[in-house]
Specification:
Helix content is about 85%, strand content about 0%. It is mainly alpha-helical. Helix 5 (about 115-155) runs antiparallel to helix 6 (about 165-190).
């Protein structure tokens, strides 16, 4: 009498069962791989979005610091040797700094995504902004309407394109506004002892550390240590 394991029918069942089992295992492994791929895709998408947000925040920060440097250079070209005018222009540029990086939202983004050296450098600039706004708040407020009128005047029609008497009036308005702004700059600068060169060095430092952060110059360990300190606050 033949044993069950020797019957041809049983061998057929084993062969079929083995094949089905292999299919089931293969499908299971494939499903796991697909789930892993989807998780990886989601993780990569999240990393791309975080990187883009970080890049945008740091780029605005660099642009804001370059703006301060540009306003000082412009003041030096407009009135060479007039240190009060130069100092007043630098203080006005500091006054506009927060707006250039997106106000509180922009500051929060740099704080959230930037490396520790970037956040420390930003805080140094903000500290100087607070000091100067506290000392010269009234004069800085007077510059706002002058700047708005200059902007509207330039946007309405370029000076060189305005003909005849209207062009003359346009030019006189522009020159009068520029004169008013210069007077406020000088008044602010004469009442201040701000070291403009120190501000320029600070701006250069912010630009350097932000560029380094954009180029992944800070290690993962440094970034992780920074996040731990933030979360403990």
């Amino acid at each position: 009498m033949l044993g069950v394991f020797s019957t041809p029918g049983w061998l057929s069942i084993l062969a079929v069962g083995g094949t089905l089992g292999g299919v089931v295992v293969t499908q299971g492994v494939t499903a796991v791989i697909r789930r892993g791929d989807r998780r990886q895709e989601r993780a990569l998408d999240w990393e791309r979005r975080v990187w883009q947000a970080k890049s945008d925040a740091l780029t605005r920060l660099i642009s804001a610091c370059r703006f301060i440097k540009w306003r000082v250079q412009q003041a030096e070209a407009d009135k060479p040797g007039d240190e009060n005018y130069r100092r007043g222009a630098a203080i006005r540029a500091l006054d506009l700094f927060r707006g250039r990086i997106g106000d509180e939202d922009g500051i929060s983004e740099v704080t959230a995504y930037g490396a520790e050296p970037v956040c420390k450098a930003l805080e140094e600039v903000l500290k100087e902004v607070r000091v100067q706004q506290g000392k010269h708040g009234a004069s800085l407020s007077a510059l706002g309407p002058i700047g708005d009128r200059l902007y509207r005047l330039g946007k309405e029609e370029p000076l060189e394109d305005v003909p005849g008497a209207e062009g003359q009036q346009h030019s006189e308005q522009y020159n009068d506004l520029m004169s008013q702004r210069a007077q406020v700059f000088v008044a602010i600068g004469s009442a201040s002892n701000l070291d403009v060169d120190k501000v320029i060095r600070l701006c250069n430092h912010v630009i350097d550390v932000a560029k380094r952060d954009l180029q992944a110059g800070y290690s993962y360990t440094q970034q992780r240590a920074w996040w731990r300190r933030v979360l403990r606050r």
